[in-house]
Amino acid sequence: MSYITIPICEPTIEKFIESIRLAAEQKPDIIELRLDSLNEIRSGDMTAEIVKEAKKHARIIVTCRDGAEGGENNHPWEKRFTVLMQAFVLGADFIDVELANYETPFFKEHIDDHLSRYPDTKLILSAHNFKEPFASLENIYTRMQAAKPNAIAKIAYRANHINDCFAGFDLLHNRKSDMIVLCMGPAGVISRIIAPKTGNFLTFASMGESKESAPGQLTIKQMRSLFRFDSINQDTKLYGILANPVGHSASPAIYNGSFNASGHNGVYLPLLLEGGKPEFDLFLNNVTSRPWLGFKGFSVTIPHKTNAFEYVRDFGTLDAKAMPLGAINTIAIDADGNTSGYNTDYAGALNPLKKAMGTLAGKKAAVIGAGGVSKAVIAALVNNGARTTIFNRTIEKAAVLGRLFNCDFASIDSSERIKTEAFDIIINCTSVGMTPNTDQSPVPAQTLTSAMTVFDTVYNPVETKLLKAAAAAAAATINGLEMFVEQAVEQYKLLTGENANRGIIEKVLREKFLINN
Ligand code: NAP
């Protein structure tokens, strides 16, 4: 259990009361009143009104943050101190005091005195670094333990890279009492989501967009509906997509929606992994050396497919089908931290083709493109007996793949060969025709015939200019969404060991990509 806490920062009493009522509608476990955000702190009465309203709806934390630790308005310490003392009297459930302030004899004496007079109020001792990780988290925690062993230790620091989160997870793993360790910034988002898994006493979530009190806070709606925060516990398995950027991925909605439907105890995270191979390797080492974190696997996309291939080739087990591809999009992790790597684009291309055509043996296939997707598609075709020709804008790249897979190759300019040589299958593996260039097609319409199966791997839009022309020529068609769904179905099984819910995958992808059709 980790308490989901909405922080409220407002400049006036009226706005505080309004926001408390709005926040209460979202049923947080705790409301944090950031009273330092008040433009002016006058008499005690003004905080009383705010605290009394908040207490009607949830447990409350009263905070009057020191400007030195991110507090607003730089209120003088005497005023902040008065607010905190009054919060005891008003029955606050928690008082947040910065460790640096608590360590001064004056604060300590009065706070300890109030803690003994108001035993229902608990102390949160906090330390913040908005710039970077603390040089030593252990030292901060040791200081907190020495200052007040039964206080709830709260340490918040900026993660400048996702790898900075692991020191925080370690501290939580070894905690001796209730504790909060959160990483701020986009690289620290996962520390907020998996708070119940790592044993965080609470996590913060904003009541809405632009209402966050610290960088990287998600909204309470995102936490609960997309990441199923309320169902995360210590046994929850972790999955995620390794990418940079990661914001537009459909995978969190696919996986978390599927977990919701099946009851699988897992959460799928957006994992913003900045940097190149060294950062990728460090992340995988961080994960595999901490089996107690429960990471079970990853989807991998731009720019890390080659990094993933090399990591698993060197330290894990690569699927034989992925060997010639030089890139993988799936890493599964077993209970001992061993990695296995797969490229599910192979099955993603093969399954719809087999469904449409039965066997591929002896069929003549033209592949347009010689990039990453082309490799998986060509491997699937060649391994299943299709006679394949690669057409590409850059002939040298076509030649490399031609030699690798032992097939014919040509320039994309010679694509009129597609008609004269009577290909059975045409597959576009270029980005030609993709949004925003939806008026482009890699193959002239007049080269398409009703005897062909035309497959466009582009899925945005789903019905590309090429596919529209193929349908007009009465050819059979396969769209990129079918491939996307197939590769996702295959990947889901590899990562979770369970069958995917195809309906949910299709629904999420259609909602995401049909917008552009
Ligand atoms: P990639 O490695 O960057 O390769 C891009 C390919 O497109 C290269 O062959 C490139 O030719 C060619 N190309 C790009 N612009 C072109 C143009 N204006 N005219 C002619 N050829 C052009 O990319 P990738 O990872 O293979 O992805 C390719 C496409 O596959 C994506 O755009 C996406 O739509 C699709 N895709 C589909 C799925 C799915 O599941 N359905 C999954 C991933 C990707 P040069 O070698 O001459 O540069």
Please give a structural write-up.
- The structure is a single chain.
- With 517 residues, the protein is of the alpha/beta class.
- The protein is built from 20 helices and 20 strands.
- Strands 7-6-5-4-3-2-1-8 form an eight-stranded parallel beta sheet. A six-stranded mixed beta sheet has the order 10-9-11-13-14-12, with helices on both faces. Strands 17-16-15-18-19-20 form a six-stranded parallel beta sheet, with helices on both faces.
- α1 packs parallel to α2 (44-55), α2 (44-55) packs across α3 and α14 (345-357) crosses α19.
- The longest helix has 17 residues, at 480-496.
- It is elongated and about 90 Å long.
- The structure holds NADP nicotinamide-adenine-dinucleotide phosphate.
- NADP nicotinamide-adenine-dinucleotide phosphate is lined by residues 345, 348, 369-374, 392-394, 397, 412, 429-432, 434, 457-459, 480, 483-484, 487.
